[in-house]
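User: Predict the complex.
Assistant: Input components as received:
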Amino acid sequence: MLEAAGNLLAARQRSALALVGILIGAAAVIAMLNVGGIARNETIRQFRAMGTDVMTITVSSRSSNAVGLKRADVEAIPAVIPAVAEITPFVTGGGMVAFGTTSHNATFAGVAPEFDDVVRLTMQSGRFISFHDDYEAYCVLGARLASSLGGRGERPRVNAKIRVGAYIFTVIGIAAPAVQNPMLPLSVDDTMFVSLPNARRVMPGQIMGAAVGRLAPNASAEKADLALQAYLNPKLRDAYLNVQTARQLIAGMASQMHIYTLLLGAVGTLSLVLGGVGVMNIMLVSVAERKQEIGIRLAIGARRRDIRALFLSEAVILAVAGGLLGIVFGLAASWGFAWLSDWEFVLSPEAAPLGAGVSVLVGIFFGFYPAVSASRLDPIEALRAE
Amino acid sequence: MLELEDIVRTFRVADRDATILRGITLRVGKREVVSIMGGSGSGKTTFMNIVGLLDKPTSGRYRIDGQDVLTADADRLSGLRNQLIGFVFQSLFLMPRLNVWRNVALPLFYRRTPLPEAKAQALAMLERVGLAAYADYMPNQVSGGMRQRVAIARALVGRPAVLLADEPTGALDVQAGQDIMDLFMQINRDLGVLIMIITHDPNIAAQCRRQLVLRAGVLVDETHLAAA
């Protein structure tokens, strides 16, 4: 073994080139596994905040005289469809909000008082919109919106006055930062919440186009979807309904991840094969160059399997060195990916052993032919070689 | 020890058979020191390859230490070479990346001798050829004469019955060559190993008790001629 390592060190440059191929392959495989793990972890994190029983309804209008959801219809759903435990409608839109001398683009949401319960919204300060606030000019700010208003000077606090067009709203609460949930058609942190009646003021002409709810325990997502379509569709005009449940979304994300994983896996396999061919090439050159050495080894009593083992171990050392570097690079790449996408880095426990195992196999597979051809050399021919 | 009977070796070169050895019959006993002379193309190297079990004759019989070796397969021949024969080649053929004692121990490595024991035997053999102080040097750090001694130590470390030397003094100056010859004689006395030296140098050949000459594939014993 030591000898094999020494021989590789002597042919540093060529060894390094073969190493690079294996390195890229192993890195791709490691990155694939680890990024997959990170994404899975991220999905779990997103849904841990709101739970996997979340469901949303969105309405898309087909024309300008579309009729959307009605508050009473939506609030009656739990009584009509037992699969839905709770549900609350909301209106979304957007526009400029001004505080003091600064203004900022914000998402608007007109919500019912149950909204904070259904989406598990927590408050940083103040309180959320309540039953008594329907006709009060009150608003609640998302965490990021609150901190970006006010510029370098004073931040909006509870009781601060926020201007939207011709209306002045009083801030009654600021929400705590929330993990973005892919189910919601709005980003809670960037939103200004007002009551449903006030929504008509800040978003004139906007139909009530969304609702968020929770499925009853053990309820079937598909059945709830069908029941909701059957119940709500006749009440809409020039609009259509879209029901989305967290479970369906997770399944969709999983199949997306699967395609992505296959793709990275294909890239990894391809570069491992190319790296393996590189290893084979280098080993063939090495066998051709070291014929005399093989001859002398045979003359002093090396058997065919001794010669085979010598060259095979060189190939495997080469592949494993590439594989170990590949593990480092792959983990670094997935760390970079997590950092760029602001996701939490997690180490997949199977990544490193799999990468090392795969590179050993590549070394054995692609080192086998050169090693066998070395072991089949005729000792006289080999000794005579230059 | 070595019994060769009517050895013929024919090579096919460009669709024609070229007969290099034409019926060589030879018996060499244990403890003999034999020289084989011959000009270029006389078949010296082919003869040595056959004696050294690196090649097989086209026809004839060859027994070494009482064993018929012509039916053995490649791995068995490797084993027999390892056990019975030590080679000293014309070009030195040391492993450049192994130090002196590891080079010497290489035949024992292929015999699966445990490392500490192999090292002890290699060091003992280096002592015998006068290189005990150089055990940890690399081959390119010692002189040509020393390298030849390392090669001899490697040939002897497995305690072979036969030592085959192909032009062992060819690359050395007269004094270094003479030192090597003295070493061979001493080894022959001390270890009782059969030594066969292939050379084109009459001075080297003259020092061997038995002198053979290859001419156009035929072996002639000229010991008595030289003595006369």
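The two ends of chain B are 27 Å apart (CA to CA).
Let me know if you want any component modeled separately.
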